[in-house]
Design a protein that fits this description.
This protein is α/β, with parallel strands linked by helices. The protein has 17 helices and 13 strands. About 1% of the residues have low confidence.
């Protein structure tokens, strides 16, 4: 098949590579440029686009292999969080898809991509709420769901104390679940992060691809640095509400138990744009909030343990894979590690109550032999299953076969 074309639609510019979502999108793009001419159309921030252009001139990378980049300045589109459900719900009363679908500003993108839609041999969309507005092209569309919105909303609902909001969120989750499951037959392919998500959508249907999150090969080559045997770290995008809930939960319910056993234990919160509720945790003695650092590797590499005490959210956690790649042992909740082929007490520690979580952290801090064992086995599992180079090559092959099959059937 000569010079196939892929139209790639993204709700955000995948640059700079400072969040898990952007990293995933960039690696998928890199994979697709191996088999086709790729036209990227994306919403984004003007400054990020300028930075990308300057970076591409100095370090071309895969960006130079894109056929074109069309950029749409980001319109106001607040995250759909519980505090604006009441305001948003009226806009989607007659929309079978859900609030997030009716509120996303697809009109600007639709206007921009109209000339490209029919020329494309394949249309790749990041997120289902982009794909549902392109009904007439369903059989050319691959949707990367990344994480299931229905699961995230249902978990939010389980912790919502306001009865009315909880009922609305459950209703919303049910609508999203129907949309997600119906999409398996509606589109050419759906991509998810894990076997667990694939099973939630209907099992082993060959229209469901699993594209796991991964880590760059370069992380595996990072040199060991001195580790502080009392240092605990959390890394994450701090404007993301599940991450806020995680660090607040840890500081309130878990860290005091650890301090009672290990008085010199310290906790570092490292991430983008922490809100005041997170920065208020910083005391400069036991808890340190480190916002917007240019490189997290010195923090992760020098910690004795990386924690993921997530109680809500969905998808798979790049923060776990990256910590393991650095050789830093991980303690996570079951929700935090879901979708990853990692075994408790072998590759990481899993704990779902404050006491169990604290015990796991204390064990790693105190037992250097066990800490080194987890570091070695966790890193080896990442090497075996979660390198982006391997994931990209597999995706490129799948897409090449799909393009060929689609051309033969049309």
């Amino acid at each position: 098949m000569a010079n196939p074309r892929i139209l790639f639609l993204s709700p955000r510019l995948p640059y700079p590579l400072n969040t898990g979502t952007k990293i995933r999108i960039s690696h998928i793009l890199q994979s697709l440029t191996q088999v086709a001419r790729v036209d990227l159309v994306t919403y984004g921030d003007e400054q990020d686009l300028e930075d990308l252009k300057r970076s591409s001139c100095t370090y071309p990378g895969f960006w130079s292999y894109l056929n074109s980049i069309q950029f749409i300045s980001s319109p106001p589109w607040p995250e759909i969080e519980p505090d604006n459900y009441i305001r948003k719900i009226s806009k989607s009363l007659f929309d079978g898809y859900g609030i997030i679908y009716s509120s996303f500003p697809m009109e600007l993108m639709r206007e921009r991509i109209t000339p490209l839609l029919r020329r494309a041999d394949l249309i790749w969309t990041e997120r289902l709420y982009l794909a549902t507005r392109l009904n007439e092209f369903c059989q050319k569309i691959v949707v990367d769901i990344d994480d299931l919105e229905s699961v995230k909303i249902r978990r939010h609902a389980s912790r919502q104390t306001n009865f009315y909001l909880r009922r609305m969120m459950i209703r919303e989750s049910n609508r999203l679940e129907r949309t997600e499951k119906n999409s398996v037959e509606r589109f050419l392919r759906l991509a998810v992060c894990s076997d667990e998500d694939r099973n939630l959508l209907g099992g082993v249907d060959d229209r469901l691809w699993v594209i796991p999150n991964g880590v760059g090969d370069d992380l595996m080559l990072k040199k060991e640095v001195h580790r502080d045997a009392s240092k605990i770290i959390f890394v994450g995008t701090m404007y993301y509400e599940p991450n806020q809930d995680a660090v607040l939960y840890f500081c309130r319910d878990i860290f005091p138990i650890i301090k009672a056993s290990i008085p010199d234990a310290t906790f570092y919160i490292v991430g983008l744009k922490p809100p005041s509720v997170v920065t208020a945790l910083h005391d400069g003695r036991d808890i340190f909030v480190c916002p917007d650092v240019p490189d997290v590797s010195p923090y992760v590499g020098s910690a004795a343990v990386s924690i993921v005490p997530l109680r809500i959210g969905g998808g798979t956690r790049l923060k776990i894979l990256e910590s393991l790649a650095y050789g830093t042992p991980v303690v996570s909740t079951t929700i935090g590690a879901e979708g990853l082929d990692l075994q408790h007490d072998q590759h990481l520690m899993l704990a779902d109550t404050p006491d169990d979580f604290a015990y796991a952290v204390i064990k790693i801090l105190r037992d250097s032999g066990f800490r080194n064992h987890l570091a070695a086995t966790g890193k080896e599992q990442v090497r075996r299953k979660y390198l982006w180079s391997t994931i990209r090559d597999r995706l490129a092959t799948d897409c090449q076969n799909l393009l060929q099959s689609n051309r033969e059937n049309n």
